[in-house]
Every structure is written in C-alpha cells, then in structure tokens.
Specification:
about 425 residues; 5-stranded mixed sheet; 15 strands; binds alpha-D-glucopyranose
Length: about 425
Amino acid sequence: MAFDEMKFQSVISEFSATTEMLREVATNFRKDLQIGLKDPKSSSMRMLKSYVGLPEGNEKGEFLALDFGGTNVRVLRYRLEGEGQSKIIRHVAEPLIIAGKYDYVGKGSTQEQMFDFIAKLIDDTIEGEHETKFYLGHTFSFPSAQDDLNNAKLIIWTKEFATAGVEGEVVNDLLLAALKRRGIENVIPVAVINDTVAVLLSAAYKNSDVFTGSIYATGHNTCYLEPSIHDPKGFGKGGMILNLECGNFMNLTPNRFDRAFDRKSEKPGEQRFEKMVSGRYMCELFGMAIAELLDEDKHYDNLTSVDMSMIISDVSENLEKVSEIVSNKIGHHLEVADLKKIQDLAAAVVIRSARLVAASYVGIIWQRAGEGEIQPQHVAVDGSVYEKMPLVQENINRAFEELLGEDAKKVDTILDNGGSGLGAAIAAAMAV
Ligand code: GLC
C-alpha cells in the first residue's frame, strides 16, 4: 500500500510548531511563571521551592547520592574536591522493573518493596559498611512539596509510576524506614532535590552563568534560580531554585494525538506539556500517528525513543533500518516511499518537541531578564533525548534564534551529563 498523501500532509502539519506558536508558548510560559510567583496555585506549573540556591563551587568531602527518577535507580559515592572537581568512588545501578522478573513501579507494587530494593542498592554502594557515617543526597525526580531541604512529600506520581503508598508521604521517611529494616543506621539522608535542581547544582558547581537546569529525557522538567526568594531554612547563594514542574504546563494547544493519548494515559489531564515533548511519550504519539497512516484503529505502544532515533538516523538508500523496525514492531513491510514518510513523521514529532522545549527556556530567560538586558548564560540540560536524539540540539538553537534574534548569541544549552547524581552529592555537602 502507499500512504495517502493528503492524510500524511495533514498529520505532519499537526506536528508543526511555527515561530508564532513558539512565541505564544514562550510568552504564556513567562506569564505562568509570573502568576506562580505570586500564587503557585494559580499557575499551571507547581513552582516548588527547593530550599537551595547555587553552590559556591568549593564544597568538599565524601557523600552518597541516590538518583531515583526513572526506571533505573543509581546510587553513587562521590568525592567532591572543590573547584568544580569531583570523582565517583563507587557506582551501583539497577532497574526498578525487569519484565517477567520483578516490577516495583507498577500498580501491584508497594512502597516497602520499592524502598527495600533501594536500601539494598545503598548497602551495595557502601559495601556493607555499617559503622562510618555517610551523608546522603537524594535526587527524587517527582513533584514533591518541601518545607526544608530534607523533607519532601510526593504530591503525585508522574511518568506512569503507580507504586502504592508513596503519594502523600515524606519520601525520606520511607527511605529511612527501609534502611532501618536492613540494619543500616549510618546512612543519613540530609537533602532531597528534584533532578532538574540536581542538574543546575552540578552545572553551577563547574561553570558560572548557569541559572537554569533541565531534564529532557523519559520525562521533561526545568528549574531556575529565582533571585527574589530567600528563606532562613535554605542553603546556597543567589536566591532559591524553583522546581517548575513544567511538565504540567498547560497553556499550549495539544493536537489530536496529544489529546487522544492523554485520555488513555495513567493520569489524564496531568503533565500535558511533558506528554507532548518527553521521550516516554513522543514514541506513543509516533505510534498513534503511524496507525492513522495505516488506516488502523489501534495504537502502536511498543515503539521506543531509541527506535525513533534510529529511524531518523537512517541514511541508507532503501531505509533498511526503518524497514527493519517497522516490520518488527508494526508488522508491516512497507515500500521505500512510505518508509520515508515514517521517517519524516518521526522527525516532525522530535522537531516539535525540541522547539516547544526551547520556547519554554526562552520564557524563563525573558522572566529572569525582566525589563533589562538578557544576561549571557548557559541552560544546563541532562537527559537522553537532549544528548542522543538526532535533530534536538540544532532545533533548540534554531528556535532560540527565531525567538531571541541577536540575543540568541548570548544563550546556549550545555550538556550536564550525570548531573542528577553529582547534584545530589553537592546538595548533601551544602546541607551539612
Ligand atoms: C517528571 C517529574 C519531574 C522530573 C521530570 C524529569 O516531569 O514530575 O519532577 O523533574 O519528570 O525527570
């Protein structure tokens, strides 16, 4: 079969984001920030206080970092050496779900199972040493309400997590209880931060002129340093970092596929921006759009962002890789012209994502600049989509140029690889 050209064009156009649309997104994003600064409840973003500002860069010592925010949990032992330098002394990582073996994130799982598993990873990282005191920074990458740096209550699961008994609870209390069950009393959690905050701390430890931290991976979210907020219970300099939880940003127009996917997601109505841009969801939208091109009333939910990346990267004449993925996962043998359309569709979904994310960064840059000049700055980003997905970085830059004009020269994005681990160690150092 050959795809209907009109239908193809109409699907592609649903994924396009013009400069005007981006300008509107950036403007609305900034407005929501302003509203949220006055009253977080009136903004579509949660704008959560982190009780931490920027590090000095001279923080030193050995700290544990728990990085818990996706299906892979990591525990690291860091030595912070000051002057932006650090070393990983030990690193343990395990998935929270292995199909057919165990699942600590699905509906049937409990908080005890999940935190016992994490306590075991911590035990592996300290190699069973139950005497020496270890201070632990915890990167917990879900919306959490804090009233100081160490107390964070999970507001709501995101990223399709559904483990029972965690929403509404103080996560470090659950962690402490699990450590205790395992006989570990020498690991002392002292800080909980969001992964975006971790990325910002990590990047600011090493560079100057970084005020924004972002994750562009399975999930998507951004934080920034708000100079007007100071709190006696906070640590660090320059004001307070706000975790925007901008995955929940709502003032933008979802297309037909976005709306249809949202309806069948774990939490309909929530995280609308994240569902349009992040790795966990882009492949779902892609799978739905492919079904439409095939005139099938179904949803291919078995595609991954890695598949999309490979599809986009295929430069072979007959699109062999695209063909292989389409026949393995969709069960169709398509002619090259249709494979090319599938490739273009993947690119369109990714480009829209990168442009919308860039517009959200511009909203923050405008907000920080206020009436004044835009300051030279780097937006620190971590995450597989930013790091590895073709077309993403160049399209962020292009959108910056469209929205910022000459000022785009003052702004760039930098990869802060592994920031969600290092940032937790830095937060622990700042707290003690
Ligand atoms: C989700 C979480 C948020 C996190 C982001 C990236 O949006 O709600 O807290 O920062 O994923 O991991």
